[in-house]
Amino acid sequence: MVEKKKEEMKVKIFNWYISFEWVFLSVVILLAITVSILLYGFNVPFMNILFGGFALLLLVVLAYYWMNSRGYYNNLGRIRRTFYTLYFIFMIVGFISENIDYNNWEILLQLSALVVFVDLAVFQNPNILKIWNTELKQDDE
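Above: the chain's sequence. Below: its structure in token form.
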């Protein structure tokens, strides 16, 4: 029986093709080091890092939309999953580092509502056509 070699997904960085796993691992390690340095080296408050991370992701998504709107719509599900995964990772890091108290349910509810609102306002807005009696105009590309 002949085994087929698993095809690797390659990422083109300048003129080099690098395995996606290495790029992903490098980004995760870089983000972990950056958050650790900001939290413990510069004593940046955790909420500033959380909102800064969300703002940075939204700016990257906006730039991606401007550069390749078709690719944006094709990858919208992945972008939304990345946004929610970033939220969960920040919450887990906040719980582990004791910067977010799980007994303070009001802040947890507010942060969750903020994430859902951003998802509805930014990512799902073109798909929402009617809210109660209000008709929304569809943005045609």
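The chain has two domains: 1-44, 45-135.
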